[in-house]
Amino acid sequence: MADSLVIIPTYNEKENIEKIIRTVFSLAVPFDILVVDDGSPDGTAAIVKNLQNEYGGQLFIEERKGKLGLGTAYLHGFQWALGRHYGYIFEMDADFSHNPLDLIRLREACLKGADMAVGSRYIKGVNVVNWPMSRVLMSYFASVYVRFIMRIKVQDATAGFVCFSRKVLEKIPLEQIRFVGYAFQIEMKFKALQYGFRIEEVPIIFTDRTEGVSKMSTRIFREAFFGVIQLKVESWFKKYN
Q1: What b/e readout covers 159-169, taking b as 16+ CB neighbours within 10 angstroms?
Q2: Per the database record, which ranges form the Glycosyltransferase 2-like domain (predicted)?
């Protein structure tokens, strides 16, 4: 039985979901997968359910009604994982922008002492493939902005490829996490640091999706911009222990 769970949120990922599931299950290290599907009208959930016949006991799906946001999908997955035996819980996209092989490297970082391992696009230069320059600059300077406002050393604060040791998710009050997009990723890292956990960044190459449609929007970016200030101000009045 695997001690590691990969949470994959989905909304209209029929082009990618079977391939990503089969790739994760082909890795040398065993991982279980939980797909959290937000009522995809394209049949994503049906593909996962069909694969459950092949990967019984390793592949799970939680279906939600409506598009409720990336952050709430991960929070749903975290609570699901904490109700079970998993020691390591991962966030990963369905579209191969995160290389499944790097799951092993993130897990190894936590096995060697990190409380949270982040697949970082910016720890060794800028390692992004197939993004337009405008998107690269926006993402890079978003992390610079986060470091400046929050006074943290995480180079890729908006990264969504993450391994949590179980104790991190048990300590952070998940019911108090409020953001749903990029700001969710920032909030989880900031809270982990505030509670005294050690974050290690693992260099990865991020490759933009080749199939399916990006879920990025100006609303998500705006939430992150103002959310950073809100989180920092609130931290001045909150005790973490």
Answers
A1: bbbbbbbbebb
A2: 6-172
Summarize pLDDT for 207-237 with one digit per residue, the tens: 875 654 555 556 666 766 777 788 788 878 7
pLDDT digits over 145-174, tens only? 888 888 889 999 889 999 999 999 999 999
Q: Residue for token digits 């405008």?
A: 134
* CA 215 to mean position of chain CA atoms: 14
Q: Which of 190-194, 199-203, 218-222 has the lowest mean pLDDT?
A: 218-222
Does the predicted model carry a pTM greater than 0.85? yes
| Interatomic CA distance for residues 36 and 58, integer angstroms | 14
**Distance between CA atoms of residues 139 and 173, nearest Å:** 27
Query: In the structure encoding, which two tokens stand for residue 179, read together?
Result: 């953001």
Rounded mean pLDDT, 83-100: 96
Both structure tokens of 139: 């993402």
Tokens of 71: 């952050």
What type of residue is 33? I
DSSP E strands, 77-220: 88-91, 116-120, 128-129, 162-165, 199-203, 206-207
Strand partners of residue 163? 90, 117
Say what angle helices 182-194 and 70-82 make with each other, to 10 degrees.
Answer: 50
Compute the distance between CA of residue 6 and CA of residue 24 in angstroms, rounded to an integer. Answer: 9
**Domain 4-235 indexed as CATH 3.30.470.10:** no
Q: Which amino acid is at 80?
A: W
Query: How far apart (Å, rounded) are the C-alpha atoms in residues 90 and 202?
Result: 14
